[in-house]
Amino acid sequence: MIDDLALFADLYELTMAQAFYQQGMFAQATYSLFIRQYPPNRAFLVAAGLEDVLDYLENLRFSQASLDYLRSIGIFDSNFLKYLKDLRFTGSVRAIPEGRLFFTDEPVLEVTAPIIEAQIGETFIINQINFQSLLTTKSARCMLAAPGCSLADFGSRRTHGIDAALKMARCGYIAGFQSTSNVLASQRYGIPPSGTMAHSFISSFAVEIDAFRAYAASFPDRAVLLLDTYDTIEGAYNAVTVAKEMEAAGHKLVAVRLDSGNFVDLSKQVRRILDQADLRYVKIVASGGLDEYEIDTLLQCHAPIDIFGVGTKVGVSADAPWSDMAYKLVAYNGRPVMKLSTEKVSLPGAKQVFRLYDTNGKFPRDIIAPSDENPPGGEALLQTVMSGGRRTAPSPRLDVIRGTLANDLRRLDDSHKGLYNPPHYPVAISANLQQLTLQVRSTIQEDLG
Amino acid sequence: MIDDLALFADLYELTMAQAFYQQGMFAQATYSLFIRQYPPNRAFLVAAGLEDVLDYLENLRFSQASLDYLRSIGIFDSNFLKYLKDLRFTGSVRAIPEGRLFFTDEPVLEVTAPIIEAQIGETFIINQINFQSLLTTKSARCMLAAPGCSLADFGSRRTHGIDAALKMARCGYIAGFQSTSNVLASQRYGIPPSGTMAHSFISSFAVEIDAFRAYAASFPDRAVLLLDTYDTIEGAYNAVTVAKEMEAAGHKLVAVRLDSGNFVDLSKQVRRILDQADLRYVKIVASGGLDEYEIDTLLQCHAPIDIFGVGTKVGVSADAPWSDMAYKLVAYNGRPVMKLSTEKVSLPGAKQVFRLYDTNGKFPRDIIAPSDENPPGGEALLQTVMSGGRRTAPSPRLDVIRGTLANDLRRLDDSHKGLYNPPHYPVAISANLQQLTLQVRSTIQEDLG
């Protein structure tokens, strides 16, 4: 995206790095990335964004232009800048793979490296994994609300910027969307592109039916006609006329799209108009301010909608645009560390998350344990994905990640997938981790006097 | 950001373009960008993002790789792809300059060009101006809530992606923030960088005061010490000790930072501790989940906070992460057009916005009029910024844009700047525009029969 992302960092990452450098602190540090609290109405999150983090770490280097800029700020020492010039990420990354579910307090990623290398990545790592996990979670919730329907990502115009639009397409696809409207994302990630037409297309013609005919002529096998520019019901009759003309020419209208008004009433009326004209194969697409809540309401009211185009509210995770995801030092030079700030306590030491399976293959609970604890059973979720600064294996294909999520969601009890205030999934802290936490806390409190 | 943004478009921009091409529709079209409804608690928006739109339009071209990708989708005609290969944006753009206030229904930007050129930019244009206007508006609200205080952008870790983080820094600076934490944004936009230290810095040392001393040694004239890693009050006493050591060495501690807990109580206690140690010059920074609402509450409670670091909630415009901003065709081939969809009616024709001034230099109201109407008085807000596909003038410097916003905010009545449900600013539709709207509506309705 940008060649030189080394400066994509909060200034304090670099000032702390200089202080570490000047103190001669080059020992190994481990940082954990996790959320403390669920965003509203969530009881699970989907891991996403790891791919970008690994790219970033593999390519991390300070260009001469970046070093010159840092020098110009006037607070960096020339020996430290020389050190930065040769800095590469040489550490390891353990992570819960993309597409897997994770829960509060669980490290979704741990970085172990000389402290400067591990600290510097904080801003980028949180940035990418936080928002991609939020967007994938929102998308997964939409899929859960629309069983049997298809979803398409229409979010590009309302996401916060270019990067967000491209990643939204990828997040939606991981969640099970059938397509994205964004052509660049489609090219980059190999996601099927889809699209219909805008109101401007209709209004550029003197009358609606001429616009429908022109579009059908250009795309005889891919046409989706937008009905609501002037009047949705009139639009539906015009679409029927054009669909019949298409049939006569050996083609089929794919779908019609509703973009405003009362979707329950309109979809039922339009379905009836289509069916009465023997156009049962023509699907109905709805779009405009839809997310899991609206989709659920529409389907509860039996709105005969086949495809939902979701944009605005999904592309910004409107009801949960942020989380409290944090990247915290948990060990330095072999010493486990933690934070005691009010409501911001962290768990010390490198950790592993074990996911148990019951006899039906469902997840009854997770256990967070020190990474060196004998497995309490279940599946160890964090995998070593980078070692010595290089990926340990090629990244999984996007459709594998999509399958991973589908599989995890099947194994999660339905109660935790509810749209409104779902009960939390049980996450236990192993006895060893509890003991370590108490130990570290008491050491700190002794030091505090 | 990305060299080849031509494919950063919803697929339908390109399918519609092919249909226009095949219909021989190359006449001039005008599109208006506007919002219909204010996001919650807003009665003004700040224009931002134009700079990126002009860059995009000046550089719009389809690379061979992009054309190859489009061909591979299998729905584009080879003559049309040949046409795309040579396509450049040759049109004009009129816009309300960055940093100016705009209101519902007012076109913040109008594009006039051969219809294909004007249509293709829709996705990018909405994407950039929508989110940048939202972030600048949120930032301006924070400034309004914190008179006499300094604000710093700490949002990079929670914005939705890289583009959003960089633009957030710029939006905050337009709104009056003193600095950004993002070093890349600081380099790119010439914004002062700022930063403090993370909890991880503290916990990498065995005891807190050693971390404070190390940081002060590295940054004797720029140190801001973070107090809440273990206990804010203990942290404050440690900071006093280090500040006194710094004084003895001829330096001054700049500030201390609170990042959790009850900011009202803690800031008062910490201020007292600092003052009792004759450290009145040491400022207090607060950060952590702050936006205009929290800042307002803190200052109402007389919390002695000098600097607010705003991140999470500002960087995603948490209470208003989206708007209904739309880019609508308003004229084609000399014919004014509009949409009649439920609650999505648009105003036909190219328009101008006139802002009146009262005798005190304040804004009493705006008037939206057809662009060719004799000025009803006041200042015409839309300026021609691009003509024949090229900028008509160099872009204003960032501090000029910042001054523009400060100036506009001074002239807006305070009532419209309220944080909660402010009354709407009066925006009138000129008699001519009302008449044109009725005329176009009745023509459409006749056609609908």
Q: Care to describe what's here?
A:
Two copies of one chain form a homodimer. Chain A is α/β, with parallel strands linked by helices and 449 residues long. Chain A has two domains: 11-134 and 323-448, Alpha-Beta Barrel (nicotinate phosphoribosyltransferase); 136-315, TIM Barrel (Alpha-Beta Barrel). Chain A has 16 helices and 19 strands. A seven-stranded antiparallel beta sheet of chain A has the order 13-12-1-5-3-17-18. A six-stranded parallel beta sheet of chain A has the order 7-6-11-10-9-8. In chain A, strand 6 (150-153), helix 7 (162-175) and strand 7 (179-180) form a beta-alpha-beta unit. Chain A is elongated. The model of chain A has no long low-confidence stretch (mean pLDDT 96). At the A-B interface, helix 1, helix 3, helix 6, helix 7 and helix 8 of A face helix 1, helix 3, helix 6, helix 7 and helix 8 of B.
